[in-house]
Amino acid sequence: MESRRKSNPQLRRGLCYANNSKQQDRSPSVIVIGGGMAGIAAARALHDASFQVVLLESRERLGGRIHTDYSFGFPVDLGASWLHGVGKENPLAPLIGRLGLPLYRTSGDNSVLYDHDLESYALFDTVGNQVPQELVTKVGEAFEFILKETDKVRQEFSEDMSIFRALSIVFERRPDLRLEGLAHKVLQWYLCRMEGWFAADADTISLKCWDQEELLPGGHGLMVRGYLPVINTLAKGLDIRLGQRVTKVVRRYNGVKVTVENGRTFVADAAVIAVPLGVLKANSIKFEPKLPDWKEEAIADLGVGIENKIILHFENVFWPNVEFLGVVAETSYGCSYFLNLHKAAGRPVLVYMPAGQLAKDIEKMSDEAAANFAFTQLKRILPDATSPIQYLVSRWGSDINSLGSYSYDVVGKPHYLYERLRIPVDNLFFAGEATSMSYPGSVHGAFSTGMMAAEDCRMRVLERYGEIDLFQPVMGEEASVSVPLLISRL
Ligand SMILES: Cc1cc2nc3c(=O)[nH]c(=O)nc-3n(C[C@H](O)[C@H](O)[C@H](O)COP(=O)(O)OP(=O)(O)OC[C@H]3O[C@@H](n4cnc5c(N)ncnc54)[C@H](O)[C@@H]3O)c2cc1C
């Protein structure tokens, strides 16, 4: 194999700095831009397939929207924390199983809306009265029924509309489904949860597309020890350059040239673009020649929403032993919820998760004001709550490395835009959650697209050099070794 590689002069191409005039005797090369799950998965796969890989990451840390923080003395995730689809169908299951990372299953249901079982909520009104559990369950079921009714609206109207508008039409037609008083507020809370799933307000979510993603079986499990070990394992042994913000990507027939903020350039046979959709939308990376119109349209037309986490660390646990605490209100904007990490991971921590417009508004506040805002919500339902001893605040919407939390389908735009975003352009291969038509907005979706980009890249580069059988396929044997996942429910 080695001698064959050497025999092909075209393969004697290497990844080098542009100012390094002497081309080195190396195997095909690729630059991966972005060190989140997608970029790392692509880099790992191509490295294992004998490519020369350099990964350029703008932040001083790896993981992107996986961000496990240890400043409380234990892991908490400021970005992703659930594995959606706790079962062998999940492409991350073999790795998580091998690492022995425990999961806490918050729901056995495969639903978009109920990543927590209905009985695991304790909901309160804004003056601290607990909502009877039967009402929580009853309204949860009613909401599911009402959403099914919106399907009839979808069948009837050729034009797309927002999920909010569709709900209004259902209520106009079926006044018997309208809820009043406390039940109405509980319904708003479920709507607020749905908005959290999409990181967007109901009046911007597409009726036609909201349920087009695929849900893997096995329910939803929290990564009790944080997601970072998965990233670190995949990144082991890779050539990773942190603090390298890419500003320009030039593609030519025989390779790519990538420039970073400080002016340094890297060249290779191909590049994997694994930066977030928000970054592509902001045009902070210049492509030369420009990307084709269909690609630019996909970038412009896919939505990117905001969900944040305000993580409150307390001295003691003073709240009920449920997985989720919620505040119900007249509108979904006024509702809120807290994930109880004590139940899931034994830590005295509550995670407040605003989404959509509320998340945008909170991002305008200082960290201290944002933490106070979350604590005020908690005080409304638990007046004896003691102040947190520490807090963490995410800003995924304004962070220039993400410019949004995850993608979603906006009204009037087709779901196939995710695929358009994924399709390669010459020797540029695109990866990331927003390029996953089946699993957008998820860690396993990002991982799958990284693997796909790696395979596409391998095929293209090696086809061109006539060496298609030379290297290992990107999905090695290891991927098929299955270790059962460690799942608990306290
Ligand atoms: C608050 C929150 C909660 C979430 N919860 C879940 C969950 O529970 N389960 C789940 O499955 N998913 C969840 N998600 C979604 C999940 O985190 C993402 O879908 C996934 O991590 C995205 O991975 P990625 O590789 O596509 O992008 P990213 O992780 O964003 O990686 C892109 C990388 O590119 C880097 N970059 C940006 N610009 C440049 C540049 N110019 N040059 C070089 N590098 C650059 C970034 O710094 C980043 O490291 C959540 C997301 C958020 C924000």
Automatic annotation (TrEMBL):
Domain of life from the UniProt record: Eukaryota
Name of protein: Uncharacterized protein
